[in-house]
Structures are given as C-alpha cells and as structure tokens.
Structure to design on (563 residues):
C-alpha cells in the first residue's frame, strides 16, 4: 500500500475510452495506446497472475485478458474493478476484432469513426488493418473524420470559461479559434519518470515566457497534470494532449506555427524532431541535421576526430559473436548498452568476455533488431559536464559541474559541484575549448550539454546533448540567471549571445544531491551504475570546500573507487 509511481499523465476526451487511449499514448513506453500494437501477453497463466497481483501494467493485461477470451466474471473477480470500467475495455476489444476483418480500402466509415472517437491512434488502426499510419491518416481525412478542439470548461458551464485550455476529439464544431499572430509551439516532456523528470518542465515554462516576451503567441503541448507548463495561464494556448506524433501533427496543421521548439522538453520532445523534419515543419533553433549528428555515435565521433577531441574507443555490433570479435579493439572494461535509449537504460559495465556475451544477449532479447553499443569504460575517471548557449557564432558556457563520484555512476545519480572543486587549469581550459568547438561544429542555436570523463589529464567526450539538460535549471538557480530565457531568444533568432549582459552570482559552491526512493522498492538492486535510479534532487550551498557536508560526501567517493 505504499506509493511507487514517480509521475503521471492525463488524457482528456469526450468519453472515457478516448481519454484512456490518450493517457496510454502519453506513457512513452513504446506502446501506441491500449491494445492494437501486437505487444499483448498471450499466456493465460501470466495474465491471470497479473490480474490478481497488480503491477504498473495491469491495465494492459486486462485488455489482453479480454482479447484472449478470459470470461468477464473471472476478470472482475481477480481485479475487483468496477464492472463499468471493465465493460469499457471489453468494448474496445470487440471493436478491434470488428475492424480487423477489413483492410484500408474496405473499412466502413462508421468503424473508422468509432475507432477515432474511442481514441485509437492512426498507428493502432494501421496495425489492425495491416497498412501504414499515413494511409490511415489520408483515409480518415478523405472520410472527413477530423480532429476538432474543445475548450476545457473550467467553470462547469456556470459562466463562460475563458481559459484557453484545449483537448481534441472527433466531432464537428471546433472551439479553438486560430489567431493571425505569429506563433510558436513548445513541446513538453510528458510524464515525469526516472531519467526525465520535472527539470524539463522548468525549461519549457521559461521558454514559453521568453517567446511571449518576443511577441509570439505561445502554444504548449503536454499531458502532465503535475507541471507548470500545463497550467492554463502559462502559455497563451495549452493543448492538453499526448506528446505523441499524431496529436502534435494535427495541432500543427490546425495552428500553422512559424516553428516548433524541441530543445526544452527533454528526449521526448527532441525525439520528435525527425518527424517534424520529414513533414517539412520548421524546427526552431539547432537544425535537425545537427540534432541527428549529435545523437548518432558514428557521425558524432567523426566530428570529434576532425576537431582533435578525444573520446573513448567504441563500436556498434549486431550480435554477441560480433561483440566478442570487436572486443579486442575496444578493450575491457567495457560499457554495453542498446543503441537508442534514455537515462542509461539497459547499460552495464562488463569486465570479461563471459559478461560481455551475456549482456549482449540480454539486450537483444529485450529489444530485438536493435544494435548494441560497446564503449571502452574509463575506469576511475573523473566526470564533469558543461552547459552552454550558442547562437552559431558565439558560445557562452553557463556552467561546468564536477561530479563527486567517478564516471560510471550516471550523471543524474551523482553528487555534482558547481563550479568544479579540483580540476586543474589545463583540464578546465580543455573542457571550455572542447565545449566551444563542439557547440560551433554542430551550429548550435540554443542550448547544449556536454559530458566529459577525465583520466590522466586527458579530457574525453562521453556525449553531447543538443538540448536543455537536467543541469540547466540547477545552474540557473545557483547563479541566479535566466539562461533558458536567454537561450530561447537565441533559438528564435531574436537575440545573439553577445546581446546579453551575463551577471552570474558566483559565491561558494552549489552541490547537487541526488534523492533516491529505494525504501519504496525493497527488492530493487540499490547499487549505482550507468543506469539512472534517482527520482529527484536538491541543491545545497556551501561557502568553501572545508564544509563538513562536502568533506563527508567527498570522502565517501572512495567507496566507489575501491570497488
Ligand atoms: N566511456 C565511459 N567511461 C566511463 N563512464 C562512462 C563512459 N560512458 C558513459 N559513462 C557513464 O555512464 C553514464 C551514462 O552515460 P551517457 O552516455 O551519458 O548516457 P545517457 O544518455 O543515459 O546520459 C555517464 O553519466 C557516465 O557516468
Ligand atoms: Mg548522459
């Protein structure tokens, strides 16, 4: 009976099913909603167990139970969920079975309409009809089944609600009147979770306010009820919708903004850049090519090479055989991870061939068809990171933080100190030089975060995140400067870096302290590693390094070094 979740989403619809589908589309667990994605459980005993002993994904298993034909009475008895809710899910399963009898050319308009009004995404319908998402999109437009936007009535119809707070549904009357002002869409970061928490909401909110100052009408898209970005008076207009391509695209078509800001909403927003590019929608700030270059290990390491910047040897492999073969070039210890993940998911340090083989097999079992990234692990290195604002010509480094734990503990889980407490002049200058070079080479317009591992006075690049990072809000607060506001104005092309009069309040040090929730998860491995586990953080100011608290946590770092 103790709470375990770390975040939440909200879906708003005209009916329960539509709202439920939207909430499921917002989860970012690589599902397209509830059902219709081919990812259901089909083993009866597993499903029954899950119904009786609820876990985070029981909702999905209730759906699977109906699909498998487990009797309503059994599902009700095991879950003790009110009949009404179960009937709603059962209805979805029935509808899907009906739709599956058709293909894209034969699907009757009534069924398409029913699916859309019950919240099914085009991708889900495409799965049922075995066709492309874009074909479903086209077909529903031909059938004149289009999204409209409704005002959330915050005054229960007692008097006219003036709050510009919208959700989509499939009806005829649209209530979201489009203005003729120049407008910009800011993509939010979705639900809070480990690895992508509230810090991205901070950046979104400050971005919205900065764009307003520049005279833009601001449009926020997000589905997280806990955040300030989803307050009805933060942006000029709020679409309380999943940060999910179909919803975003429809809003873009409706609003016709000058562009979309993807740099502020963490990986969630950044990941959507590819689709925006493909559909010819302007990305505000750093270009898609640069975002892609920074994310792609192969091309990014080429950029580093061209700029004489060191990085740990790495390679990409497709199977365990391949991994063992290439291991000789990389050298143990090695960091193994799936090639497209967030928050260090599935990352592991391996020290010999046996461990390497086991982990590669594990990774590929969980994400078949993925590639595996092998990095040489810099043992006992110091980790540091820098955040900067760049306009394509000038770079302003807003802060450099030195971690207390050695590299190998995820940056989100380390204690970190602003500014660095014992990096020499040479290392500091290398960090600054590399940050400038990388920001310029990527033609960054806006924010960039770069992570470093320092060993024997060599500064290696671990990664570059071409977006607002977890540490940006921390630096803003410690130095009392509105860096996200500045960066947004740079992204929009309204200001250059040299237009700002930077006046950070620098006294003493600010320590970032990670917060863990392990007491809620008694059976979870509490050992820290490259996969992030903390659920929050706090800031602690000290005047100087002789501070008892600092000395205490600093001495505890030896614990990690001795392992
Ligand atoms: N080559 C390396 N040597 C030592 N530690 C590393 C190396 N690469 C990554 N790490 C550690 O793993 C953590 C997560 O890796 P990172 O590439 O930053 O992934 P993420 O995208 O999850 O932030 C880093 O914060 C760092 O502590
Ligand atoms: Mg990182």
């Amino acid at each position: 009976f103790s709470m375990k979740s770390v975040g939440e989403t909200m879906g708003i619809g005209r009916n329960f099913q539509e709202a439920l589908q939207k909430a499921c589309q917002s989860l970012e667990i690589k599902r397209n909603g509830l059902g219709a994605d081919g990812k259901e459980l089909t083993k009866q005993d597993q499903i029954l167990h899950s119904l009786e002993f609820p876990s985070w994904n029981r909702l999905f298993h209730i759906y699977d139970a109906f699909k498998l034909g487990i009797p309503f009475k059994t599902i009700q008895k095991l879950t003790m969920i009110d009949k009404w809710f179960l009937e709603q899910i059962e209805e979805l399963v029935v509808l899907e079975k009906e739709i599956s009898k058709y293909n894209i050319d034969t699907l009757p308009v009534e069924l398409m309409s029913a699916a859309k009004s019950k919240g099914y995404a085009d991708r889900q319908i495409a799965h049922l009809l075995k066709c492309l998402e874009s074909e479903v999109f086209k077909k529903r437009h031909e059938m004149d089944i289009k999204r409209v936007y409704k005002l959330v009535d915050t005054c229960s119809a007692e008097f006219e609600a003036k709050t510009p707070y919208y959700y989509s549904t499939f009806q005829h009357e649209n209530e979201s009147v489009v203005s003729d002002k120049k407008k910009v869409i800011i993509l939010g970061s979705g639900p809070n979770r480990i690895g992508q928490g509230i810090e991205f909401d901070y950046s979104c909110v400050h971005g919205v306010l900065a764009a307003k100052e520049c005279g833009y009408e601001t449009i926020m898209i997000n589905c997280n009820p806990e955040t300030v970005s989803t307050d009805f008076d933060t942006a000029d207009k709020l679409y309380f919708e999943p940060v999910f391509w179909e919803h975003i695209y429809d809003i873009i078509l409706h609003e016709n903004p000058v562009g979309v800001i993807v740099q502020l909403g963490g990986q969630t927003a950044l990941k959507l850049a590819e689709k925006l590019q493909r559909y010819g929608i302007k990305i505000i700030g750093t270009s898609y090519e640069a975002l892609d270059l920074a994310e792609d290990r192969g091309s990014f390491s080429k950029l580093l090479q061209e700029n004489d910047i060191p990085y740990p040897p790495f390679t990409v492999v497709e199977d365990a055989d391949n991994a063992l073969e290439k291991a000789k070039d990389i050298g143990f210890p090695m960091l193994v991870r799936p090639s497209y993940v967030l928050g260090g998911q599935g990352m592991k340090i391996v020290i010999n061939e046996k461990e390497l083989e086991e982990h590669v097999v594990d990774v590929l079992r969980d994400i078949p068809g993925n590639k595996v990234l092998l990095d040489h692990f810099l043992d006992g290195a110091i980790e540091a990171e820098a955040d900067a604002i760049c306009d394509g010509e000038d770079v302003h480094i807003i802060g450099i933080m030195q971690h207390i734990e050695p590299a190998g503990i995820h940056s989100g889980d380390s204690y970190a100190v602003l500014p660095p407490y014992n990096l020499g002049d040479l290392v500091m200058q290398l960090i600054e030089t590399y940050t400038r070079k990388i920001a310029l080479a990527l033609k960054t317009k806006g924010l960039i975060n770069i992570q470093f591992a320092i060993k024997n006075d060599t500064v290696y690049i671990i990664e570059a995140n071409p977006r607002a990072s977890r540490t940006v809000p921390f630096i803003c607060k410690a130095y009392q400067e509105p860096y996200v506001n500045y960066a947004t104005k740079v992204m929009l092309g309204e200001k250059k870096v040299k237009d700002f009069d930077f006046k950070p309040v620098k006294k003493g040090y600010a320590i970032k302290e990670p917060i863990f929730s392990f007491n809620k998860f008694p059976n979870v491995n509490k050992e820290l590693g490259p996969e992030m586990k903390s659920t929050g953080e706090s800031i602690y100011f000290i005047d100087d390094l002789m501070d008892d608290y600092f000395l205490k946590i600093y001495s505890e770092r030896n614990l990690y070094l001795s392992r």
In short: The pocket of adenosine-5'-diphosphate (ligand 1) is lined by residues 312, 335, 343-344, 375, 377-378, 381, 383, 407-411, 451, 453, 462-463, 530 (CB under 6 Å). The domain at 31-145 is CATH 1.10.1030.10 (Carbamoyl Phosphate Synthetase; Chain A, domain 4). The first strand starts at residue 148 and ends at 151. Residues 83-99 form the longest helix (17 residues).
